[in-house]
Design brief:
Pfam families: TfoX_N. This is TfoX N-terminal domain-containing protein. The structure is a single chain. The protein has 2 domains: 106 residues, Aspartate Aminotransferase, domain 1 (Alpha-Beta Complex), CATH 3.90.1150.30; 30 residues, no CATH class. Helix content is 34%, strand content 19%. Strand 3 and strand 4 form a beta hairpin. The termini are far apart. The protein is built from 5 helices and 6 strands. By secondary structure, the chain is an alpha+beta fold. The protein has a 6-stranded antiparallel β-sheet with strand order 1-2-3-4-6-5.
Length: 167
């Protein structure tokens, strides 16, 4: 069954996220579970579905963030801590929009990247040995010592059609 065309509101929201992340060189867009997802440094950061944003935030702040207005958990059972849907009223001003985008980007360096499906399946198929555990530790250690990429300067914020009001 072919995918339904996206509504104008969804396309505007996707464009707004794209604009907000334009200063980064490590952004990739792809479909993910019925959303249009934006991956930063290989990790899901923000996604759009309909007129809502899905943001990935620190799991340790889950309780605080679930109490905010215009947000709801991705998984009410608690299986996906740190993932929140933000309704349009939750990002209708520039300050609200910046809060969600900045929070998601701030958490992204600490977020864990999911293994590609081939590697995930291979890891499940073979038992861990002392050698593979040691090798994984070495890879993780060397990954943390790499120098951070300098970010391009953020362009001046432009008014986007998703904002009802500007602060």
């Amino acid at each position: 069954m072919p995918a339904r065309p996206l509504s104008d509101e969804t396309l505007h929201l996707i464009d707004a996220v794209r604009t907000a992340l334009a200063h980064r060189s490590d952004v990739e867009e792809r479909a993910l579970f019925g959303t249009h997802a934006f991956f930063v440094d290989g990790k899901m950061c923000v996604a759009v579905k309909g007129e809502e944003l899905l943001v990935r935030l620190p799991p340790e702040r889950h309780g605080e963030l679930q109490e905010m207005q215009n947000t709801r958990e991705l998984s009410p059972g608690g299986g996906m801590k740190g993932y929140f849907w933000v309704e349009p009223n939750g990002f209708s001003t520039r300050a609200q929009w910046s809060f969600w985008i900045d929070e998601a980007l701030a958490y992204n360096p600490q977020a864990k990247a999911a293994l590609p499906k081939k590697k995930r399946d291979a890891a499940k198929a073979r038992p861990a040995t002392a050698k593979t555990v040691a090798a994984a530790g070495t890879r993780a250690k060397s990954a943390t010592t790499k120098a951070a990429k300098p970010l391009a300067k953020k362009p001046a914020a432009k008014k986007h059609s998703i904002f009802e009001a500007d602060d």
